[in-house]
Every structure is written in structure tokens, then in C-alpha cells.
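REQUEST FORM: STRUCTURE PREDICTION
Request ID: SP-0412
Submitted by: Lab K.M.
Chain count: 1
Length (residues): 122
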Amino acid sequence: HCELWLTATPGAQPGQEYLGAFRGFFESVDMGGMKATIEFVRGSGAAETYGCRRGDDELVVYLKGGDFSRMLDLKLADGSYDVRVVDPATNATLSTSTISGGDTSVSLSGAWGDGGVHVKKH
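STATUS: Completed
RESULT:
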């Protein structure tokens, strides 16, 4: 878990209902050293947005509910990034792509309910 994102305290937490299926996603991402922030997210159709980042090298976004026909708009440092969009209910990879830094957008096509996005610099 990244700092302050998901806690072990009782009560509802963002994405708690999907943690079993999302385990594979979390195991594929080194969450250690990440800081909770959504400063790199310029916009999305999600009802709630949560994020973590390790500098400009690796970023994770969790989108809870909302309109996934809208793009996830990001502001990234210069460079090239691999992107993976995941359905947290099944841990299925919905899409993969490579994007350039700067003001950029990620398609959430195929996502519904909630979505996870992993962005990693080359």
C-alpha cells in the first residue's frame, strides 16, 4: 500500500471490495516508497480518484465509479511510459499502451464500475 491510500483500520476503504482480485495487480506494482497524490491527474469521468506515485517513474490510479467513456487525463514528465488498465473486480488487463509524457490521455475502454491504471516510465 502506498502512504495513506489503503489502511488496515476497520471500515470502508476505497476499493476494499476488490482487494482479493486486485492482489495480483498490487503484487505486480512495487508500492513501497510511493506517496499518495493525484496531482498528476488532470481529469477523468470517475466519481472518486485515488493515486500514488514514485517520483516520475511509476504511478498508480484507482478510479471508483463514474463515466469510464471519458479519458483519464494525466500530466507526466517527459519520456515514454507503459500503461496498463485493469479491471479490479477480476484483475483482468483491459488494455496496454505506450504513451509520451506531457499532457496526455489514457483510454479506459472496457472499464466499468471501478478501474485501475498502472503507468511506468521506460
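NOTES: Strands lie at 35-36, 41-43, 46-54, 58-66, 72-87, 92-106, 114-121.
Reviewed by: T.R.
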